[in-house]
């Protein structure tokens, strides 16, 4: 599963692990991605989304109908 949020567009960040001796090795900072299922009354069915936790908070604040409408405008498949 790709570490990308369908609502916020959050993607992994990249950086370094730094050891005690200050050697650097590459690492990834993945967003907190969760699979969540919502019932959307306008579609009359359940929709499973891949969301970051911030995306879940956006849905709680704006409502699933508003978020699904925006996703459909962008052409996101769900």
TrEMBL record:
Ribonucleoprotein listed as a keyword: yes
One GO cellular component, as annotated: ribosome
Gene3D superfamilies the record matches: Ribosomal protein L28/L24
GO MF annotation terms: structural constituent of ribosome
Keyword Cell inner membrane on entry: no
GO BP field: translation
SUPFAM superfamilies in UniProt: L28p-like
Keyword vocabulary terms for this entry: Ribonucleoprotein, Ribosomal protein
Family matches, as NCBIfam families: L28
Family, as annotated: Belongs to the bacterial ribosomal protein bL28 family.
Name recorded for this polypeptide: Large ribosomal subunit protein bL28
Organism of this sequence: Leucobacter komagatae
